[in-house]
Design goal:
Layout (H helix, E strand, L loop, with lengths): L2 E10 L3 H13 L3 E5 L2 H10 E9 L7 H15 L6 E5 L4 H10 L3 E4 L4 H12 L2 H16 L13 H7 L4 H27 L3 H16 L4 H16 L5 H26 L2
Parallel strand pairs: 1-2, 1-3, 3-4, 4-5
Helix pairs in contact: 1-8, 2-3, 5-6, 8-9, 8-11, 9-10, 10-11
Length: 268
């Protein structure tokens, strides 16, 4: 028998920064959040719990978001369950991917990197929280208009845009910064190893994760370099990858140094 969790959203996302950001937005308007790191785990959790919604990443380990949704829809049909709203999350907003999401059985589509205000606007009709959403967005606007007296160089990232992105929420900002600092070196090492071993799929996956991580800090040059590395992996063409990676490493050092400056005095 399913346990009814009418106030709980299942967030299926293997990238920890996206997990933290989406969960923070949902919790701010009164929802609980359960986390699943892969599609197989998501199917298992839906089988035992009655969620009010699922936010489903597409590119997941063990079982893709597409396959997870197929299995959930099949489960609903076989067991006569009420249709569960499932919202796709992906960095690829092409028409082809959108069509595939809808054809698979998803109900809506959200592009990454996750933008809190846009996330709430899109989820409101499904969650029935329009009033809470309007209040939350108004609070975000008030925070965004507040001036900051910090003047951090924005050659690699944009502090003002990043804070606006999280609605002026310093606790959330610092949490994202800490997570990025922890993930940065392991991800770079994975990218480096993939290039050395001429492993296209591994490079594509690691660069994709890195692209998502830096997107939250408005680090556009770094995001573009990660995108180029992702394409190198996709095409299995490594000729230009070392040069892209060298430049990415240099920028990563600057970004991490700047983020570390934010943590001691500026974080709750």
């Amino acid at each position: 028998m399913q346990k009814n969790l009418k106030n709980t959203v299942l967030l299926v996302e293997d990238e920890s920064i996206n997990q933290k950001l989406a969960a923070a937005v949902l919790k701010k308007i009164g929802f609980q959040v359960d986390l699943a790191d892969n599609g197989m785990e998501a199917v298992h959790m839906v089988r035992g719990q009655q969620y009010c919604m699922v936010l489903m990443d597409i590119q997941l380990p063990e079982m893709s978001g597409y396959e997870a949704v197929r299995q959930i829809r099949s489960m609903e049909e076989l067991e006569g369950r009420k249709r569960l709203p499932i919202i796709a999350m992906t960095a690829d907003d092409s028409r082809e991917v959108r069509r595939k999401c809808m054809a698979t059985g998803m109900d809506d589509f959200i592009t990454k990197p996750i933008k809190p205000e846009l996330l709430m606007t899109q989820l409101a009709p499904w969650l029935g929280v329009l009033q809470n959403t309007e209040e939350w967005c108004q609070n975000r606007e008030r925070k965004k208009r507040k001036k900051t007296d910090k003047n951090i160089p924005a050659a690699v990232w944009d502090r003002e845009r990043t804070l606006a992105f999280v609605g002026g929420d310093l606790e959330l900002f610092c949490g994202l910064a800490k997570m990025f600092i922890e993930k940065n070196q392991p991800l770079l090492e994975t990218i480096s190893r993939a290039i050395e071993e001429n492993d296209g799929p591994a490079l594509r996956e690691a660069a994709h994760s890195y692209k998502g991580a830096v997107s939250h800090f408005s680090a556009e040059k770094m995001r573009n370099l990660a995108y180029k590395l992702e394409n190198c992996g996709r095409r299995k063409s490594m000729d230009t990858a070392p040069a892209f990676f060298t430049e990415l490493q240099k920028m990563a050092l600057l970004l991490v140094a700047d983020l570390r400056k934010e943590l001691p005095g500026g974080c709750p």
